[in-house]
Structures are given as structure tokens and as C-alpha cells.
Amino acid sequence: MRLVVFALVVAVIQLTFAGTGQASEQLRPKALSFSDGYLRTMPPGQKVTAAFISVTNMSDEDCRLTSLSSPLANRVEFHQHQHVDGMMKMRPMKSVLVAAGNRVVFKPGAFHIMFFNVGHPLMAGHKTALTLATDQCGDYSAELEIRGLVKTKITDHH
Ligand SMILES: [Cu+2]
Prior knowledge:
Elements: H1 2-17, H2 22-27, E1 32-40, E2 49-57, E3 63-69, E4 73-84, E5 87-93, E6 96-98, E7 103-106, E8 112-118, E9 127-134, E10 139-147
């Protein structure tokens, strides 16, 4: 009974907000789309790896990717590579802007996504979900294919 009352209250609140922009906000199509996502397997003994993905913003408003999470790792970060004193260094980024109508490609040697403390073995060919949050464009779940670092030759198995 209490649940029914609660549901009614929620329905009334939703009706109250309908037409004020709050409701249309939720009905708006998703601004970002994700493609070619993959996560590298780790060499034995390692617990850190990187993921790569293309992010396209099809909307007319800027979207800022603000956080990441994965069931496979307890820390996932955006990184970029930078030349510092002639050395290639990685630097974490708090957020990544995907401007309206633009595409950001996370790829080796450029922006990438780091997985730290990976607590599960990564099986090439399997798929995993990456959760991405944004400032004003909603939350997303993108698919990552797990890929081996070294391409396995067919002759290795036959
Ligand atoms: Cu990195």
C-alpha cells in the first residue's frame, strides 16, 4: 500500500514537471555514439592496460566526458600523451571535451583510457561494458572488445 502511494506521488511530481523542459530533456535522443571500442589484454603479471574507442557527438551541444567505470578495474582514467623534455609521458585528464558535431578518437599514442588494478583475467574475443558519464549529455554504456596485444597466427593452433 505504501508503495502504491509512493508511486502515485512520483507520478504527480512527474506530471508537474511535464512541459517545463524537464521531461523533454529525458526524451531527447542521445548525443554521443561510440564505435570501434577495444581493450588490450595484459602481459602476464601486469594489472594495467589501455582501452581505445571513437566517440562521436552528433548533437549541436558540446559534451564533456567526465568519468569512467568498468566492472574489470577499480580505477579507470582518461590519459593523454605529452612530450616532456624529449620524453613521452602520460598525463591523466579530469575530463575530455567532445565538441558539437565532432569526433574524439582514443587511440594508441594519443588520448587513451587506462585501466588500473585489473582484477580479472582478460580473455581475447570477449566483450565488456565501459560506463561513461558526461556533464550534460547523459550517461552511456559502450562495448569494448577484448583484443590480444599480439595477433595470434592461425598456424599457432593448427
Ligand atoms: Cu596512460
